Amino acid sequence: MSKRRLSALMAAIVVGTAAPVLLPAAGASAAACSSYPSWTAGKAYRTGDIVRYTDGKAYIAEHDNPGYDPVISTWYWEPYACDGGSTDPSGGFVVSEAQFNQMFPSRNSFYTYSGLKAALSAYPGFATTGSDTVKKREAAAFLANVNHETGGLVHVVEQNTANYPHYCDWSQPYGCPAGQAAYYGRGPIQLSWNFNYKAAGDALGIDLLNNPNLVQNNASIAWKTALWYWNTQSGPGTMTPHNAMVNSAGFGQTIRSINGSLECDGKNPAQVQSRVDAYQRFVQILGTSAGANLYC
């Protein structure tokens, strides 16, 4: 993992791990979503409370909380099936399992499609924003960069072990409690550095600073860290990869946000081309076009 993660900010909001949709108890009927009270930010909720969010869907409190956002703080809230509500917390992913397997024919068994689907609820705007073409392009762009970072979803951890001790920034007030060499690249976008484990963990409601191995042992958490970076971090770029795709800046800007300091502006055209080639393959699999501005 390069020093590209140095630019990631550590500001984060309390969110949590994904959870399955809760269904009414056997023999009970789901009430209409409109019958539940509207969620109110900052209002205290107790475990079992059911609210109707601004998207019209219902959510049930899995843990007591002081009014956290149901679609962000997924450790505290779970989607709740009701008339008119969705029973798919991903909102319907534009990549089918067959297409995923076609994209990654030699993938490591750790990188499961189910793990990816379980992670989607952490960032519900991912690949669900805009037209069908935009949704497919974003999914393809994310997976193309993931493909490059992991050698086709083969590598779960960074292969150059000599780099491992370099990813500890002792100037951070929390230090490196898991050890000097504990924060090497892991997961689909190879999360690295202690401050990124801290920021991603805070955002996902998981203590990754003290337990970085969760990223290499839990497929859903691994995918969530990649989605965290994609949706919230601009890295060496000027926008998040998510915003680059939904605002038509083009695939090239996702490269800049992920590793632009080492690859863009002619620094490593072969690496850029590798990402672009994967993106063009993946949009073809998804039955759409690549769009403009492929290079950085």
From TrEMBL:
Gene3D superfamilies: 1.10.530.10, Carbohydrate-binding module superfamily 5/12, Endochitinase, domain 2. This is Chitinase. Disulfide bonds join C168-C176, C264-C296. One of its GO terms (molecular function) is chitinase activity. The active site is at E149 (proton donor). Pfam families: Glyco_hydro_19 (PF00182). It comes from the Bacteria. Residues 1-30 form the signal peptide. Keywords: Disulfide bond, Plant defense, Signal. Residues 36-80 form the Chitin-binding type-3 domain. It comes from Streptomyces phaeofaciens. SMART domains: ChtBD3. Coiled coil: none annotated. One of its GO terms (biological process) is defense response to fungus. One of its GO terms (cellular component) is extracellular region.
